[in-house]
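Re: the request from the purification team.
They wanted to know what the chain is likely to look like in 3D before they choose a buffer screen. I agreed to run a prediction and write the result into the notebook, where they can find it.
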Amino acid sequence: MNYKLIVSYDGSRYYGWEHQPDKDTIQGRLENVLGRMCQREPSEMKIIGAGRTDAGVHAKGMVCNVVMDVDMTCDEILNYANHYLPDDIAVLQVREASERFHARYNAIGKTYCYTCYAGRVKTIFDRKYVTRLEEMPDVDKMQKAAADLVGQHDFHSFCANPRMKKSTVRKVDKIEIVQRKGYITFTVHGTGFLQNMVRIIVGTLLEVGYGRIAPDAMPSILEAKDRKLAGPTAPAQGLCLMEVDYQ
């Protein structure tokens, strides 16, 4: 049976989602636990994630699918997984899926949220999930620049992989920037994202907010297809995958 899982995790101490030899990853942890449940080697558990979050990135709604031969209900699978997974990984939902369901290929959109903090006093209890800023950037300028990134564009300038051979054209439906007290959140929704794309978008918009890049420079940065013209890659800890969309 093919199962669809929704997984939440604190990525602080992991080397990202994707399984890597001799590295602690989210996928690796799930493979170990589900392999034990199915009495199979972890390497035999083909868990397919909706994406590949980077080291240190968090998720509230990562979706994955896995084919398992097990005489357990969905609730029993969920309870087993959460019993043996570490405290910073939780399976929120387990559902039977169609044989053709593929967590990555069937995804039609993703929502990410990036959180910054620029308050006068350092934040304590959410310090692992926000990026600390030395001063408050100009939100109006960032919003103006963000509007030029919405739509279908070639985001080569916002891709961390210089050897990307596949198309770097992506569609971004929304970039919402909200300031509440000392916090700034960047909510980005699109049909798909390149390596580090959301973090580079945030890093570039912060440069706009600090006056180091002009608000009207986004079209020329996109057109140049040159990573060096965009801003720095924002730190991983502020980014969280919120939701994956399916039809």
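For the purification team: The CA atoms of residues 159 and 171 lie 14 Å apart.
Please add any questions underneath this entry.
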